[in-house]
Amino acid sequence: MNWRDRLLPASFRGVGFWIDQAKTPVGRKGQLHEYPQRDLPFFEDLGQQAKTHDLTAFIIGPDCLEQRDKLLKALEQGRGELVHPWLGRLQVKVGECDMTHTRQDGGLVTFALKFYPDQPLPFPTATVSTQKVLLAKADGLLGSAVARFEQAMTLIKAARIGITNLRNSLTGVYEVIKEQLKPLIEQYRQITELVKAVKELPKEVAAEFKGLLGDIKELKAFAKEGYRGVIADVSQQLEAIRKADAPKITTGKDTNAAAQAMADLVQDTMLVKVAQWVASMPVATTPVKLASTPSLAQQSTSPVSRQEVPVSDDMQALRTAVTAAIDPMLAKAGPAHFQAINDVKEALVAHLKAVASSGVRQVSKSFQESFPAVVVAYKQFGDATRVEEVTQRNAITHPGFSPNDVKVSRE
Predict the structure, then answer these.
(1) For bias kind Polar residues, which ranges apply (predicted)?
(2) Gap between the Cα atoms of 142 and 274, Å rounded
(3) DSSP-derived secondary structure for 341-385
(4) C-alpha radius of gyration, the chain, whole number
(5) What's the pLDDT tens digit per position in 349-364?
(6) pTM for the predicted model, two decimal places
(7) Which residues contact residue 397 at a Cβ distance below 8 angstroms, ignoring those fewer than 6 apart?
């Protein structure tokens, strides 16, 4: 195939024309600096030349005026596809153009066309904030939990509730309240006070729980806790969810129902708290790598400050633990409350996936000898202050001695 066979018929936005000449600047643009008393000039490179297309085109024939009007209409659109005979199909914007008519050239219209490169603007895309979705679903679960507790208590005859049996059934629940819902201890200092409130004032109990999570004060700033701190707190709360379920009682239908309603309320409260903690973990931005590794002497006086990034394996493990804790709650929930719990579960999984996607993988490193954890941290991260991360991830009992094979996050 010779060069003539490769030529394309010229057109703009589908309107054809003929081309006499096409000119496009190439190379680099810049500024030439010339100095007095110096023989050598200096050329300052200012980047690549813009691919501007200057075309000398014409339309010829008995219908040249009709073809001219079509091309003028296409040029007025401002942008479109230019089929360049030598360069192919290009997306361009129309620049300054000239049109020439002469009497001696009857049936011919000449154009000086200028086109600039056009990069089509991308369409805006919406990004869902998994944090906000999770918090919204948690609020919905809180309202559903309070409504379920109040409805369950309206079906129970308080006179038939056995105080002793109810107290024994709520022992584990009360321990969870003391460990994870400490502000409620100011209201229920003894388990007997909680049992009495469940029997006589169930609506006040529901209001106390709703007010507690409506404005939680014990949530610490993520900047202080970090990903590993939040994971540790959430793991404790997931364990509390498993402990909170009331044991079955062989006698006393109303007592058993009251104990189960209270246990369900505490479990739902803990799940809302889990959702709020998980939502505090942001999706990490791309970390900036250190240009050089400071020496230990420098780090002892000026510790390395760098962005914390999640470890994808940790998020995967947390997602599995969340699912395992929520599934038993779904199994005993009614249709309406099932939907509220499942919405929180899906929102939790979605946010943990988003956080994991912005993280790094966990890898194994092998050393020929046993190093102190601080040396492992410096060798892997160039940051001796991350020694605690190495000791926790590998369950090292003494930081002076680490195993030859250690697990660390990838940098």
Answers:
(1) 292-305
(2) 12
(3) HHHHHHHHHHHHHHHHHTSB-EEEEE-SSPPPHHHHHHHHHS-GG
(4) 36
(5) 999 999 888 877 765 6
(6) 0.62
(7) none
